[in-house]
C-alpha cells in the first residue's frame, strides 16, 4: 500500500510518518483490498485546547473512505482517525462478503 503524507503549516516529522505508516500497514494486512492512503496533518491556530488535526483518506475499490480527528497532539489524532477508519473498513468488508 502506498502512503502519501502532507504536512500543512507544520514541520515534517519522520517519527510521526513512521508511526502512521506502521499502523496503516497493519490495517492493510487486515484488509487486503486497500490500495493507498493520503495522510494530512494540520494545525488549527484558532483551537487552543486541541487543534492538532489528522485527516486520512483511503483508496480502495468503490468509494473512498475518509476520517478526521482533532486532538491535543498528533499521535492521539492519528490513532483516533485510524480507529474510525477501522470501523468503516469492517462495515465495508461485510458488504464485500455478501457479493
From TrEMBL:
SUPFAM superfamilies in UniProt: Ribosome binding protein Y (YfiA homologue)
Signal peptide start and end residues: none
A Pfam cross-reference name: Ribosomal_S30AE
Transmembrane segments: none
InterPro entries reported for this sequence: RHF-like, RHF/RaiA
Protein name stated in the entry: Ribosome hibernation protein YhbH
Organism: Winogradskyella psychrotolerans RS-3
Amino acid at each position: 500500500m502506498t502512503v502519501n503524507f502532507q504536512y500543512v503549516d507544520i514541520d515534517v516529522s519522520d517519527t510521526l510518518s513512521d508511526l502512521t505508516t506502521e499502523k496503516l500497514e497493519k490495517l492493510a494486512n487486515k484488509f487486503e483490498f486497500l490500495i493507498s492512503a493520503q495522510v494530512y496533518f494540520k494545525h488549527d491556530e484558532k483551537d487552543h485546547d486541541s487543534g492538532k488535526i489528522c485527516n486520512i483518506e483511503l483508496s480502495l475499490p468503490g468509494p473512498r473512505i475518509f476520517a478526521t480527528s482533532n486532538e491535543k497532539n498528533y499521535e492521539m489524532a492519528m490513532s483516533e482517525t485510524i480507529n474510525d477508519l477501522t470501523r468503516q473498513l469492517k462495515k465495508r468488508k461485510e458488504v464485500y462478503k455478501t457479493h
